[in-house]
Design goal:
Enzyme class: transferase
Subcellular location: Cytoplasm
Structural class: alpha+beta
Protein name: Oxygen sensor histidine kinase NreB
Keywords: 4Fe-4S, Cytoplasm, Iron, Iron-sulfur, Kinase, Membrane, Metal-binding, Transferase, Transmembrane, Transmembrane helix, Two-component regulatory system
Radius of gyration: 43 Å
Largest sheet: 5 strands, mixed
Number of strands: 5
Order of helices and strands: HHHHHHHHHEHEEHHEE
Number of helices: 12
Strand order of the largest sheet: 1-2-3-5-4
Main location: cytoplasm
Helix content: 55-70%
């Protein structure tokens, strides 16, 4: 199974390294066991048969088997070479067992070599051959038939096979889990990147609509008014041009700030949301539209910066809708502080519209209402739109006050 770190996520690279380390440790232990068995068998033989003529042959064959075992990684490249190498190891071992039956114990590491390098049918035949030779050697060494000798080597072979198969299954399952985890993490990372891209696009579109597009619309209206009065009333035309220039400067500041994801420019002065809404109302009060601002209640705590920024953007977006769609003469911004929430109302006396049609997506109010609804939802608040054709519009955004909001300075 995959290991998990303290953050609740798995590290696939660490899991792969751990699996490789376990495999290397197992092979190292197997190698140590083989040479211990080979050395102990050779020592036992030399202690009991030093003067016999077969001793040089036994030593030579033991050295050959050790050399073949060590050279295994280099000699077992493709399947044919691997089969030839295993056949040479088995042949040398069988000759050793024929001369000295005590070398039968070296069959245990050879079992694992067969299981690792041969397919199941070939591995079964390889292990069966080694088991038969081991039983024959032990019976010949004992000099008589013994039931435990007949059952012992097959039992050892069965245990070795069971252990190896179980470990191999666990290793395969672990690698499959790691592969699935890596694939899932890649898919998740790609999804997060897509969601991040969409969220950033949505943020930029809302910022552009609520700030830059609104300012450009005001500039257009002012410059058109200046063009109409340029000859008849130059002073009024100059006043319109100066107002358009001021709006352009403000738009430039807004563009620089939202590119860096900073607070709106009207909040940068430190006057808070109340003063920012009053400034917005003054700036939006142009020929043909009068905007008033009212603040009711006293805030029990300072609003978080993100709430102030979002409510100001909501007011900007709502006034942009009033100017572009409502054909209104007056509009009112009302900010109300309650015990558990703050409410921003934007009302106008324009021509109104059908809110149900806007929700159905027929484009009555373009991008404005969806952006306002998104901002309100991000704050955990609710948005209410009351309107009807010919009866004006009242937009109300209610945002709950967070318990962790900071208290007012000096409160």
């Amino acid at each position: 199974m995959a290991r998990w770190d303290g953050t609740g996520t798995a590290d696939p690279e660490r899991e792969i390294r751990a699996a490789d380390d376990e495999a290397r440790w197992f092979r190292a232990l197997l190698d140590v066991g083989f040479f211990l068995l080979l050395g102990s068998s050779l020592t036992r033989f030399l202690m009991r048969h030093t003067g016999e003529g077969i001793a040089p042959w036994v030593v030579t064959l033991a050295a050959a088997l050790a050399a073949l075992y060590v050279a295994g990684p280099a000699l077992s490249g493709d399947r044919t070479r691997r089969h030839l190498w295993l056949g040479a190891c088995a042949a040398v071992w069988i000759a050793l067992v024929f001369l000295a039956p005590s070398f039968a114990w070296c069959s245990i590491p050879l079992f694992y070599l067969g299981l690792r390098h041969l397919r199941p049918p070939a591995a079964a035949g390889f292990i069966g051959l080694l088991t038969v030779v081991s039983v024959s050697a032990q019976l010949r060494l004992a000099g008589r038939f013994e039931f435990d000798i007949l059952l012992g080597p097959p039992a050892v072979a069965a245990i070795c096979v069971a252990v190896f198969v179980r470990m191999d299954q666990q290793t395969r399952r672990q690698r499959e889990l790691i592969t699935d985890l890596v694939r899932t993490r890649r898919e998740l990372a790609a999804t997060e990147r897509r969601e991040g891209t969409l969220a950033e696009r949505q943020r930029l579109s809302m910022e552009i609509h609520d700030s830059l597009a609104q300012g450009l619309s005001s500039q257009q209206m002012l410059l058109q008014a200046a063009d109409r009065t340029w000859r008849s009333d130059p002073d009024t035309a100059h006043r319109h041009v100066r107002a358009a220039t001021a709006i352009a400067e403000h738009n430039l500041t807004e563009a620089r700030r939202f590119v860096h994801d900073l607070a709106p420019a009207d909040l940068a002065g430190g006057g808070g949301l109340d003063e920012a809404l009053r400034t917005l109302a003054r700036r939006e009060s142009t020929d043909g539209l009068a905007v008033r601002c009212h603040v009711e209640g006293v805030p029990a705590r300072r609003l978080p910066d993100r709430v102030q920024s979002a409510l100001l953007r909501i007011a900007q977006g709502a006034l942009a809708n009033v100017r572009e769609h409502a054909d209104a003469r007056t509009a009112a911004l009302t900010l109300t502080y309650l015990d558990d929430r703050v409410v921003l109302d934007v009302a106008d006396d324009g021509r109104g519209f059908d809110p149900a049609a806007a929700r159905d997506g027929d484009g009555v109010r373009g991008h404005g209402l969806p952006a306002i609804r998104t901002r309100t939802r991000q704050l955990g608040g609710t948005l209410t739109v009351e309107s009807a054709p010919g009866e004006g519009t009242v937009l109300s955004a209610a945002v709950p006050l967070e318990p962790a909001a900071l208290p007012l300075d000096g409160a």
